[in-house]
Specification:
Layout lengths: L2 E2 L11 E2 H11 L6 E4 L3 H12 L5 E4 L3 E4 L11 H6 L2 E2 L2 H9 L6 E4 L3 E2 L5 E2 L2 E2 L8 E2 L6 H7 L2 E5 L25 H4 L7 E5 L3 E5 L6 E7 L4 H6 L6 E9 L4 H14 L7
Parallel strand pairs: 3-4, 3-7, 7-12, 12-13, 15-16
Antiparallel strand pairs: 1-2, 4-5, 5-6, 8-9, 10-11, 13-14, 14-15
Length: 269
C-alpha cells in the first residue's frame, strides 16, 4: 500500500496510505442529510467516516432492513446487531427493496466492484468468460443490481488496477450505462447510474454525452500516466483534472479510530 506525506503545509501532517486517501475521498462525496444505501467493506467505512466528520445527519441504510443506523463501530456484516440496535427503524428486506429502494427513495447507493468497465458496468459474479466454469466465482449480486438500477445516484469505490478496470466486464452484475448513451433509458432504469468512481489513484465520472468514464480528479502522489497505465481501456482525461486535497489530520485520526474500534476481523474495507 503506497504511503504519501503532504508537503503543502508548514505544520506536520501525518502520513497516509492510498487506501486511506480513497476512503476519505469517498466519505467527502457524501452530503449531510442524504439517504445512503451502504454496502459492507469500503462503502461502510466511508459512510461511517462521513457521518462522524461532516455529515451527522447522513441516513445509513443497510440491506438487512436497518434505516438510520448509527453504529458505534464498523459492522462486521449487514446482520451485525449494532445496526439494528442503533437504527431509527428496522423493516423487512422485501419492504426495504419494494418500498424504499425501487421507488427511488434512496439518494445514494454505495457499491464496490470486482470489475468495472468504461461505461460503469459492474461485475461481482464471475471472473472468466464461461459462467458455468469461471476462473473465479465471486460473492455474487446481493442487492447490488437493484441499488445500481434504482438509487438516484451510485458511487463506486475500488482499487485502481487493470484487473479491476477492464475493457469489458466478464459478467454484468449491475448495469451502469450499458454500452453507452440511452441504454439506461431503454432499460427503464430509474436512477442516474454511477456518477462517481473513487479509487486509490483518483476520481472518474461519466462524460455527460458519451457516458464513458473520464478521469476528473487525481490523488496527490499519483499521475495521469499511472492512472492510464492501470486502466484496461484508453482512458479519457478531463480538460481540467484537479488534485484531490489530502486527508486532514482530523479525517485520518477518525478513520484510524474506526478501524481500531473494529478490532481483529472488523470491517477493514
Amino acid at each position: 500500500m503506497t504511503l504519501h506525506v503532504s508537503t503543502q503545509s508548514s505544520s506536520p501532517t501525518p502520513a497516509w496510505t492510498s487506501e486511506e486517501m480513497m476512503v476519505v475521498a469517498a466519505a467527502r462525496a457524501l452530503r449531510d442529510g442524504a439517504r445512503c444505501f451502504v454496502g459492507i467493506g469500503r462503502p461502510s467505512v466511508a459512510a461511517n467516516l462521513a457521518r462522524r466528520m461532516h455529515a451527522p445527519n447522513l441516513v445509513l441504510v443497510y440491506e438487512s432492513g436497518t434505516i438510520g443506523a448509527k453504529p458505534t463501530h464498523l459492522p462486521l456484516s449487514i446482520g451485525d446487531g449494532v445496526l439494528a440496535a442503533t437504527a431509527d427503524t428496522v423493516v423487512s428486506v422485501p419492504e426495504m427493496f419494494n418500498y424504499w429502494l425501487q421507488p427511488g427513495r434512496i439518494d445514494v447507493g454505495f457499491l464496490g466492484a470486482a470489475q468495472i468497465d468504461r461505461y460503469g458496468n459492474i461485475n461481482t459474479t464471475v471472473i472468466g468468460s464461461d459462467y458455468h466454469r469461471p476462473k473465479v466465482r465471486l460473492p455474487g449480486a446481493g442487492g447490488a443490481p437493484e441499488i445500481a438500477a434504482s438509487c438516484r445516484e451510485v458511487f463506486v469505490v475500488a482499487r485502481h488496477n487493470r484487473r479491476t478496470f477492464v475493457e469489458r466486464v466478464d459478467f454484468v452484475t449491475s448495469v451502469g450505462y450499458g454500452q453507452g448513451p440511452g441504454d439506461r433509458e431503454r432499460l427503464n432504469l430509474r436512477g442516474r447510474g454511477p456518477v462517481r468512481i473513487i479509487t486509490d489513484l483518483g476520481v472518474l465520472e461519466p462524460d455527460p454525452v458519451s457516458r464513458e468514464l473520464t478521469l476528473t480528479q487525481i490523488h496527490q502522489g499519483a499521475s495521469v500516466e499511472q492512472v492510464r497505465a492501470e486502466t484496461g481501456w484508453s482512458l479519457r482525461v478531463a480538460d481540467t483534472c484537479d488534485t484531490v486535497p489530502p486527508p486532514t489530520p482530523a479525517e485520518l485520526a477518525t478513520l484510524r479510530e474506526l478501524h481500531a474500534a473494529a478490532g481483529p476481523g472488523g470491517d477493514q474495507g
